[in-house]
Amino acid sequence: MGKLAKRVEEIAPFHVMAILDKAKMLQAKGRDVIHLEVGEPDFVAESSVAEAGIDAIQKHNTGYTSATGLPELKRAIALHYQTKYKTTVAPERIVVTPGASGALILLSSLMVDSGNNVLMPDPCYPCNRHFLVQVGAEAKLIKTDSETQFAIDLDDVETHWDDKTTGLWLASPSNPTGAVLDRSYLEGALEKVEELGGHLMVDEIYQGLVYEGEDMTALSISEDIFVINSFSKYFAMTGWRLGWIVVPEWAIEGATKLAQNLFISAPTVSQYAAIQALQPAVLEECEKRRQTLDKRRLFLLAGLARLGLPVVAPAQGAFYVFVDVSHITDNAMSWCLGLLEEYYVALTPGDDFGFHNAQKYVRFAYTCDEDRLAEALFRIEQYMNREK
Ligand SMILES: Cc1ncc(COP(=O)(O)O)c(C=O)c1O
């Protein structure tokens, strides 16, 4: 038997995998499982985007690109920031990566030395912790609660900062809560981090999917923020594995060296498709989808209110609703497993996103249509009544 590196032990598997495995088993037995656990849109890339990908293959545009991405794509991303977010971003500051995941791996290598730590909220996107483990560093999670809408109290940044801390990582809209950080909060966060001499990263992978509050980019506040983004969510291109990071001017050279060494380049076919994804007609379609998601969101929120299930974070963006089930169970994970086994509805337990009060919460993803949401709510009601 081979011996794995020690760091592998520090990486937790997704708890939702247990749910997914069970869901697959039930489906194989012919059960009608409703998937509200999956963090990916039920849409696919708009058809002209797929065609641009096919065209790239047919034209044999399939070799490596330059390490930081096709210049046309970087220009198209910069134009998108300019037109939609009124923010000037020099294309040279954009590094195209294999998904936001690639961008987060690059950022970890770029800004965090082994033995360092980075502050982030508990709960947050779990892989962030593990990207840091990869570089011999660690995440320092700061507890958050519904009272602060699951945003870190900025005074806590100072108390948790130590001589090994190199930065603060945030996400807006947030996975798992759907909450949006507003401009003044981000300005405050930047001020704090600058005082403390670290870097600020804002993960904007759900950018565009905002229903309440300002759909913005942290880049409009300062050029000294690292911003992560992706074609996965708003553009419904999860499997195309394409994202990007915007870095400050002073970090371009370092980021380029890392991009060359870590990935050589991001998937070429996907890059050609992504140029098309940023064209006005496709953006119009994305906006229609956002409106569809908003309708589902309101439908789900009304249904949860009817069932007496408290939504604990403002569901302003992404496609998630974060719900407190602690009045029903003291273990959200086993509650989710029971719901799946008996009523075939899959949710993600809070344990996947952190530790603080994690067993109290579940995440709903409204990545299916209203009929399915209605059916899911009906089954959840039955499950709750059955448990009484
Ligand atoms: C907050 C957040 N960041 C990053 C990612 C990684 O996304 P991808 O690598 O598909 O672009 C996800 C995926 O769900 C996410 O929710």
Automatic annotation (TrEMBL):
The answer to keyword Transmembrane applying to this record is no
Per UniProt, residues of the Aminotransferase class I/classII large domain are 32-380
**Keywords attached to this entry:** Aminotransferase, Pyridoxal phosphate, Transferase
Q: What is its EC number?
A: 2.6.1.-
Pfam families in the cross-refs: Aminotran_1_2
Q: Which cofactor does it need?
A: pyridoxal 5'-phosphate
So what family is this one in?
A: Belongs to the class-I pyridoxal-phosphate-dependent aminotransferase family.
What name appears for this protein in its UniProt entry? Aminotransferase
Species for this entry: Marinomonas phaeophyticola
